[in-house]
Amino acid sequence: MSRLIWKVQSSFYKVLRKNPLSIKILTRENQTIRSLLAELSFTTSSKVLDIGTGRGNILNLIPIKEVFCVGLDFIYNMVYKCKSDFPEVHFVNADGKSFPFHESIFDLVLCVGVSEYVHEIDELIRSINEILKLNGHCIFTISPPRIITYLRYVTGHRLYPRDPGNFERLLVKEGFLKIDCAVTPFQIQYLLRKSL
Description:
Elements: H1 3-16, H2 20-37, E1 47-51, E2 68-73, H3 76-83, E3 90-93, E4 106-111, H4 121-131, E5 132-142, H5 147-150, H6 164-173, E6 176-183, E7 188-194
Parallel strand pairs: 1-2, 1-4, 2-3, 4-5
Antiparallel strand pairs: 5-7, 6-7
C-alpha cells in the first residue's frame, strides 16, 4: 500500500466521504458494525484499539468516553488530524504489523477497512492475537473478491481481496472463534473472540 496515496488522501479524506454514494455505503457499514458492537459490553476498565483509525469513523461508534481507547494509523497526517476531533482518544502513529504494545493488553481490537490493503494477512492476524487478551474480541473486516471491490483500484490503491473460506480457516488456525458475521456490499464483517 502506497503511503504517498494515503498522505495525499489524508488532506481531503473527509470531503471524499461526503459524496452521496460514500455516505450510503458508510452508513450501511456503520450500521452493521454497530450491531456487532451491541453484542459486547464495555466497562471503564475496557481497553480498545482501532487499527487504521484514519479520520476516526470507527471511533464514532465506540463509547470512547467510557473506555480507554487508542487509535492507530501508519499515516501521521491521519493521526494528527484526528487528534483534535477525539481528545479522549490516545493516538499512535505506527505500522499495523508490529504494534508498539505489550502482549494481552486490549479487550477489543477493531480492524475495519484495513485488511484489503495488507498483503501478509496472517502477520496482521498474529499481531492482533498477541495484543488481545484471552477471550477478548476483535471486529475484523475483509473485502471479498467482487466486482465492486475491484472497482476500488481506481483510487490508486493496491488491494488484496480475501476469500471468506480461506480467511475463516486462517482465523481458526490463529486461535479465533467466529461469534457473528455481517455482509455489506464492500465488506464481510466478523465479530471474533480470541480462544487461544
